[in-house]
Specification:
The complex is a heterodimer. In chain A, a hairpin with a 7-residue loop joins strand 11 and strand 12. The radius of gyration of chain A is 18 Å and the shape is globular. In chain A, 33% of the residues lie in helices and 22% in strands. In chain B, the strands form seven sheets. Chain B has a seven-stranded mixed sheet with strand order 3-5-1-12-9-10-11, sandwiched between helices. In chain B, strands 7-15-14-13-8 form a five-stranded mixed sheet. In chain B, strands 18-26-27-28 form a four-stranded mixed sheet, sandwiched between helices. The chains are: A alpha+beta, B alpha+beta.
């Protein structure tokens, strides 16, 4: 690891100010990606600003139509939150599948979303549930937030403060693990809104990161059942292909995981 | 057997320090003035080193020295050796290219070191390493066997035209040919045995320390055989003469074969400690482990089985290409030859066998022995062939095996091995009963009705452990003897130290070896200390690999014990004024049989050292040594059966049951044996389902971290059901065979046989990932 200066601000404003002063500052929001990369000397931030200890960024609150998870809330806290389990059990379940216990105790929802790893779990939930990402500057809808591999709508120095999830009529997640890393080889989150619209998001599958799957959404809107997907085919165009899975295999997994997510959603 | 004697599941003495974090590994060792080394490694699979500019690096903060490959060559440090000479079928010797510890001119795999920076701290060494400018001229690379043997392939070493190291054969070609001509049925199979990365929990590490006043070197290293390291470092690498070099292998966190070999980093640490005049430590990180620890397996094989009209096997013909990587590691030549082809008879009576093995260079990490070393590859070939034959002939795979089992012992195979004893039918019966083999068709049908693909797979393995005798292995090309030494010291107060040339790096010798002493003398194991891993303490030894420590190392201790007991009995008889032949040893006492007269061991020991009243002519002291050279290998064998289900929609495999029935001869500590089998099975199943080192066509390792190299986790594995059947090994007085590698040898074929049974497609390569299984089902 290269030398860096570690900061532990006590407010979002202080964090933003510190970021502005640093030459090449980075926010640390759990560090489950940033620290390994720094240890390998693949990242050399001048300043590391630890936002995971800012009290105003930690916690889960019910809102009028759903729940708000503050950005520095750990995966463990989401997975075990009674509020989340009651409102959106699929989201608590998703959090329980991230990494291993050590990762879940440190990693945060804001950190995961800001990083937007193409095989991370949270982006699928945020996109399928139609969540809103709140930052220190604005609110960004899920459809506008994800911009491809490791890329988001966040400006330089912009901090995610919370994510608002509306409660949908149905929601389910199904994940197929990468055998080595246990990131999602493919994970699919399905949701049906009270109005009957369907949103389906797949992570781990596409070369462009998390994506909606219109062909599945249409089929499920017509008939919310796993069987409704039996005859559809997901195109392998644009799918990731590596030693863990071909594009055709991932396209298949998108469909199969969607079916299982629908079954889990009930 | 007593509560702590042979056969007792005694809790491991060493575990207290290991699980409380008090083990002492190489990286834990601190020496005054210690410096830290960081290697500069090639990012290319094949390149010329045009220049190395160290001018900026050498003056960076904390830098003690920057040393290059040219300097190690200039200092006449020897090239790395391969310790087993293999002769090709045309009578020529193996074609070995030079492997300097750091490359002065040409790099041949990604990760090969070209220079080293030594600094006050590891971080300073890394900083300075970034300032070293290495100018490479990239060359075309041959990243796998097929690329290396095709016409016009890039040449790795001028010594090895066509990248072929040797083309070696074993068995009778003409007779085997005739058997195939006369065969009623022939079964043919193409097999890939996937390349594995050993991944011991503790990465390799070394500390070199030079004492200028005494011109004496010490090397602390993660070694399975410190004496062999000392021998090689002094006899071949010219770093220090043997009497001026101490090698210490303290606690070592796993080896699986990968820590047998003497690696460039150890040579450099030792050599550099004199160059810079400071002790030099190198501790590898996980990436370096992936790139530079000797890998395992990596064969391409075509195998054919000939059977007569009664389904009796009449012949086996095998052609294997073995990938040895970019250089010949210490025992690499022997693994795909004498440790592989000699086991191709499996558990079966096969009158004619002919095998050809062509070992090739590729621009990849060197390949050498890894848990099982050749025997897993052989067992996989034989057991995949047997399963395929049963399907082709539409007979029960268990019955086909049983029909061809060797039942008379000793049995001479056509490929050198003379099996001493075994009962293969008993192991198979035991495994079939444990898994309810007869009930499988009903279970398969039920699973099918629930939409699941269920399969069952057998694997009846045999292996050869405790490689020996020295005279025989010498005649086959080995550069070392394969005996073991031991010394038993009874201290004046009756406590006992056992010095052994075996080396424990997870096997539990500190417990099992004590159990032998407890068995013989009736003393508690707390009174016994095992001393190993230090060439200053133990005179010589061959180390631990190939499941040899019980069969060879423990027998050496027994031989030394017998001498100690004989002398102690003389002393006791003298003290008790009885006849030596009337003395028996019980519960730590020497008794005159049939009387109540006795003398306790501490008093005998004290008498030996005070020497006030010893029999006339007897030397004082109570310490004896022995060298033991076995007369034959031992032949552990067994039957594994795997039952699993495949999810057709995802290709994911789930275990239903996995049973093992092993014959290891006498068990010293059944709990430790069970642990060894569990670990071996995990690695065998890992090879079958998860693990596989993958290179791209340019020679970059795609699986260079745990993000891409799938190590088995506990939840990838079933809860194993272990059984034992026992035939005592006649070749050693304890009747032991060895248990360290069996699981890794037998498990892979059972898993693949079960998957192919489940999906109805015999063509699948390891690791059988969900992706591959799904494609095998759906095309």
């Amino acid at each position: 690891m290269y030398e860096t200066t570690y900061h532990r601000p006590s407010s979002v404003d202080e964090a933003v100010a510190l970021f502005g002063k640093g030459k090449e500052a980075k926010f640390l929001a759990g560090g489950q990606t940033l620290l390994p990369v720094m240890k390998q000397r693949l990242a050399a931030p001048s300043d590391v600003i630890d936002v995971a200890r800012i009290k105003e960024l930690i916690g889960i609150e019910p809102t009028g139509d759903g729940i708000m998870i503050k950005a520095a809330t750990t995966h463990y806290d989401v997975a075990t939150s009674g509020t989340v389990q009651k409102a959106i059990p699929a989201l608590a379940y998703l959090a329980s599948l991230i990494g291993d216990p050590a990762v879940r105790y440190r990693g945060t929802i804001g950190g995961s979303l800001a990083n937007n790893d193409p095989a991370a779990d949270y982006p699928a939930a945020v996109l399928a549930l139609g969540a809103t990402v709140k930052t220190n500057k604005r609110s960004i809808s899920a459809d506008d937030f994800f911009k491809g591999l490791f890329s988001t709508a966040l400006d330089d120095g912009e901090i995610i403060t919370a994510v608002s999830f509306p409660v949908q009529a149905k929601a389910g997640y199904s994940k197929f693990n990468n055998p080595a890393s246990r990131f999602a080889l493919t994970g699919v989150f399905v949701a049906r809104t009270p109005a009957g619209d369907v949103r389906v998001a797949a992570t781990g599958a596409s070369q462009n990161g998390v994506m909606r799957v219109p062909v599945i959404e249409a089929a499920l809107k017509a008939n919310w059942s796993a069987g409704a997907l039996d005859s559809i085919k997901v195109s392998d165009s644009g799918m990731l292909a590596d030693i863990h899975g071909s594009a055709a295999y991932r396209a298949n997994l998108v469909k199969v995981m969607a079916q299982r997510a629908v079954t889990a959603a009930g | 057997m007593g509560v702590e004697g042979i056969g007792a599941s005694v809790v491991r003495k060493e575990d207290r320090r290991f699980i409380t974090g008090k083990g002492r590994y190489v990286d834990d060792i601190k020496i005054v003035g210690l410096t830290h080394a960081h290697f500069i490694r090639s990012p290319h699979a094949h390149a010329k080193v045009k220049s190395i500019d160290i001018s900026a690096a050498k003056d960076m903060p904390g830098v003690v020295g920057v040393l290059t490959g040219q300097q190690i060559v200039d200092d006449k440090v020897g090239n790395l050796i391969c310790g087993w000479a293999i002769t090709s079928k045309d009578g020529t010797g193996m074609k070995m290219g030079a492997w300097p510890a750091m490359a002065p001119e040409t790099v041949r795999f990604v990760g090969q070191a070209v220079a080293v920076v030594i600094a006050e701290t590891k971080n300073q060494a890394k900083d300075a390493a970034e300032a070293v400018v290495v100018n490479y001229e990239e060359l075309p690379a041959a990243a796998d066997i097929r690329a290396a043997i095709k016409q016009g392939a890039p040449q790795l070493h001028p010594e090895a035209p066509g990248n072929v190291i040797y083309d070696w054969t074993i068995g009778e070609e003409a007779a085997t040919e005739a058997a195939f001509k006369a065969a009623a049925n022939v079964v043919s199979l193409d097999i890939t045995n996937n390349r594995l990365v050993p991944n011991a929990m503790e990465p390799r590490a070394a500390i070199g320390e030079y004492n200028e006043a005494e011109e004496h070197f010490t090397l602390y290293t993660t070694s399975q055989n410190p004496h062999v390291a000392r021998l090689v470092l002094s006899a071949f690498y010219n770093i220090a003469p043997e009497h001026k070099l101490r090698v210490v292998a303290p606690d070592v966190g796993g080896g699986f074969g990968s820590k047998i070999f003497i690696y460039p980093e150890e040579m450099v640490a030792l050599w550099a400690s004199k160059k810079v005049g400071r002790p030099v430590k190198w501790t590898g990180d996980r990436t370096e482990a992936f790139l530079t620890d000797a890998h395992g397996r990596d064969h391409l094989t075509n195998a054919e089985l000939a059977l007569d009209a009664n389904n009796k096997i009449t012949g086996l013909r095998v052609k294997t290409y073995a990938n040895l990587g970019a250089y010949m590691s210490l025992f690499s030549s022997s693994v795909p030859t004498y440790l592989y082809a000699t086991l191709l008879s499996g558990q079966y009576n096969i009158p004619n066998i002919f095998a050809e093995v062509i070992s090739v260079y590729t621009n990849t990490t060197p390949v050498d022995a890894y848990r099982g070393a050749g025997r897993p590859e052989a067992s996989f070939v034989v057991e995949r062939l047997l399963e395929t034959a049963a399907r082709q002939l539409k007979v029960d795979p268990a019955e086909l095996r049983r029909k061809n089992f060797i039942t008379q012992f000793p049995h001479q195979t056509p490929v050198i091995m003379a099996y001493d004893v075994g009962d293969f039918g008993a192991s198979l019966d035991s495994a079939m009963k444990a898994i309810d083999y007869a009930g499988f068709p009903a279970r398969k049908a039920k699973a099918k009705s629930e939409g699941k693909l269920r399969g069952i797979g057998l694997s009846c393995y045999i292996e050869a452990c405790g490689i020996a005798p020295s005279k025989a292995v010498g005649s086959l090309g080995a550069g070392v003897g394969l005996w073991e030494s031991a010394e038993v010291r009874v201290n004046p107060v009756g406590t006992i130290e056992v010095l052994t040339g075996s080396h424990s790096h997870g096997q539990g010798h500190e417990t099992t070896f004590c159990q032998l002493i407890a068995e013989r003398l009736g003393v508690p194991i707390s009174q016994v200390q095992i001393v190993h891993g230090d060439t200053d303490k133990v005179q010589f030894g061959m180390g631990t690999y190939g499941s040899r420590s019980a069969a060879v190392g423990l027998t050496a201790i027994l031989k030394a014990m017998e001498k100690v007991e004989a002398k102690a009995k003389k002393i006791a008889a003298h003290a008790l004024e009885a006849s030596e032949s009337d003395i028996v040893i019980e519960n730590g006492e020497f008794k005159v049989t049939g009387t109540d007269k006795s003398i306790a061991l501490p008093m005998v020991a004290l008498a030996a050292y005070t020497a006030h009243n010893l029999p006339d002519g007897m030397e004082p002291g109570l310490k004896e040594g022995a060298f033991y050279d076995p007369t034959n290998f031992t032949f552990p064998a067994g039957a594994y059966i795997c039952e699993l289900e495949v999810d057709a929609a995802t290709g994911k495999t789930s275990f239903v049951n996995f049973v093992a029935a092993d014959d290891f001869g006498r068990l010293i500590n059944p709990m430790i044996v069970e642990g060894q089998v569990h670990g071996g099975l995990a690695q065998g199943i890992g090879q079958a389902l998860l693990e596989g080192a993958a290179y791209d066509s340019s020679g970059q390792l795609l699986t260079a971290s745990f993000m891409d190299y799938a190590m088995p986790r506990a939840d990838d594995l079933p809860s194993f059901k272990l059984n034992h059947t026992t035939t005592l090994c006649p070749g050693n007085p304890l009747g032991v065979k060895g248990c360290g590698e069996a699981g890794a040898i037998g498990a892979s074929a059972a898993v693949i046989n079960a998957i192919t049974d489940a999906i109805g497609n015999n063509k699948i390569e390891m690791p059988a990932t969900p992706d591959r299984v799904w494609h095998a089902i759906h095309g």
